[in-house]
Amino acid sequence: MAQKKYLISKLTSCLREDKIQLWKPPYTNENKEAGKEMKELVQKYSSKLSISENDTENMLEEIRCKAIERGTGNEHFRVTGIARLDIYLPRRKSRKVPLETNLFITGKELRSQIAQEHALQENAIKIIINKKQLDLGRTLENQGITHNAKVMVLQLEQSDEETKRKVQEEELQHKKEKEINEKMQRTKKGLEILAEREEYLDPDSVPYLDIANQTGRAIEIPHQAKKALVLAMGYHEKGRALMKKKEYEIALPYLLDADKHFCECSTELLNTVDNYAVLQLDIVWCYFRLEQLDCLDDAEKKLSTAHRCFQRCYGENHERLIDIKASCLYEELSVDPDKVDCLSLLGFSEQEARLALRACHGNVEHAANLITNRREEKAQIRREERAKRRKRLEDINTLKSMGYSERAAQIALHNTQGNLDQAFKFILDNPELLLEDDDDDPVAMEQFQVSQESIDQLMYMGFSRESAEQALKVFKGNVHLASQTLAHYGGLLPASLQLSPAGSSPSEESTSSKDSSTESAGSSGSPTDEDMENDAVNEILEDIPEHEEDYLDLTLEEEKQIIHEYLSYIQVPQQ
Fold first, then answer.
1. What is the spatial distance between Cα 218 and Cα 135, in angstroms, rounded to a whole number?
2. Would you say residue 539 lies in a domain?
């Protein structure tokens, strides 16, 4: 058997050197039978390799049949996408067996299929392909596995419990990492939607996400800076929500992403809010709870950063904190449960009660007044913000009543800081916004049937027939938009909207080089995309606390327990 394999290998090398393809004519006819020319090859290689003609003929026929089989398999793969894998099983008489599958299944699915078909214990086998261990979480295609790939199946010893345990742990860790990555992608999507579109959301149906200072007043900041800050604060809140569940390992990546986005904000902006300092403390707390000793140096840097940030926000002696929060820096953090109950009976939440009692040194009457005042202040701020948002919606509806799309109205008002007159001019100065859809087909525009009545209307206004007809095709028969645009541009469509004789315009350059804010603010997907976007946004909103000082509402029980534990380590035993 070994000698035969060696001789077949030699024959295959000779065929390759002579560039002979046995599966093609003249060596194989249309019925896939051996051609007459095969006899010449038998004589040639029998003499060259000193093998009998009978053995040479048998081996060449075996090579030819396998080549035809591979060729048939290749054609089958091209047509159906079903690949053939050669599976090499452990300790079997027939170690090499074929397996047909598509390449879009995951490594875990392939392992399950092999285990089921060959009575193997799934968690007790390891699979090697292309000299690499199979990644259970990725598809075969993504791992570079192709048709005719060789798959080596290794069986872990049943007694090797440690090895099997490690394999299982690796699988669980990979699954966890995959889930975290998917959740982080959804979080990012939801935050980007909020950062771009929140100012146009319905104030009566959608919670409002805004950037406010310590007094609760919205901060006016540039759009790009606001986007970075919303992303940073959103990741921070998601991380904090996970910290509350004590899921520190999952929370840490969110917090580190928040840190990255905060670094994109200006120093002046970071000095206005204390979120960045609080984030540093949260990251250090995660390091501590996860016992990541290798992060000690980074933890020290983050604590120093938090200290400097708090000083910049509140002053060297926290004087601004006293002005804003009506107290010193919470000298007494321990809260009497009876006083919390007392305030709860007055209709205040436990969170409000704890925060107010800390701010008022435990004085119940002062705490009640503080909560009431804060509620009134927040209600006033909320009314003002809702009024602003209603004004935005009214302006959008005004522009829509003039014939402009909601998308164009949103973009124009955004770029003109809400000035309605300037927004009207902005739309006309950026005519690509007048198109109903970024994906408008130029050929469809050219073929659009314009009514003679519409053309006559525009000609009556003084425009030429050619300009009138072209404008009506671009705006799909909308006489109002056509007349406004022609009037604004002196009777001719701007170059970015003109149709060429071949119907290859509006200019692709103008539509592809729009301002990034234009693209993001105006994107509109299919209903399915919209549902997915809504789910992503709602997932973010669930993690945003209603109370802006939620991060200060700590019961301190866990911290107290840890302090006692560490004090016990340094206590000197009595003699």
1. 48
2. no
